Amino acid sequence: MEHRTAALLFERGRAALREKRLKYARQLFRNALKACGPDDRQPLRAAIHIEIGRVARDLGDNESATSHYRTAAELYRGLDDRINLAHAIRHVADILRGMGRTEEAEPFILEAIAIYRVQQPLPELHLANALRVAALLKEQVQSDTDALPLWQEASELYRAVEVDAGVAESRAHLAATLGAQASQR
Q1: Spatial separation of the C-alpha atoms in residues 129 and 143, rounded to whole Å
Q2: What is the pTM of this model?
Q3: Contact 155, 174 (CB under 8 A)
Q4: What region, left, alpha or beta, does residue 162 occupy, with left being phi > 0 and alpha being psi -120 to 50 degrees?
Q5: How far is CA 40 from CA 23, 32, 43, in A?
Q6: pLDDT in tens, 15-37
Q7: Which residues are CB-contacts of 18 (< 8 A; sequence separation ≥ 6)?
Q8: Considering only CA atoms, which of 40, 36, 39, 12 is closest in space to residue 26?
Q9: Euclidean distance between CA atoms 107 and 138, whole angstroms
Q10: What local confidence, expressed as pLDDT, does residue 38 receive?
Q11: How confident is the model over 119-137, as pLDDT tens digits?
């Protein structure tokens, strides 16, 4: 019974998210987490932590978001769910990057990229998103030369999955970096 209640609250929270009712969604997800009951509901617990993390991030609470994504990552590690683990740690890396905690973020994004690269079939969009975060990290620490191949690969992957915004962002960063390098010569 508890599991059904938790699952129902989880679905209601997702519906509230779609309706952009973030605070209500957060409360529903918190209630779902409480209703999860025993630890044998790890996949649901992990999914709930992901959603609470997403809402916290959208509400500007990056510390809480990071905590929830980290908790989800640890649950996914225990479940040996590599794709969802990579998703969770990619978000940890991106949030930490946004907070200026680049050294702390780097191992997370490198692990996510490594996980995505060995998946079959290759999760192109997920890998592109992870490469984007890695490239932004490199730029943030003034390592534009190291960011170039990451942007190039991300651009190719975004083009392959027809995500025009990703292609445009990648190209803009490539142009800016190449332009800066040309002016330094």
Answers
A1: 19
A2: 0.91
A3: yes
A4: left
A5: 28, 15, 8
A6: 999 999 999 999 999 999 999 87
A7: none
A8: 12
A9: 13
A10: 65
A11: 999 999 999 999 999 999 9
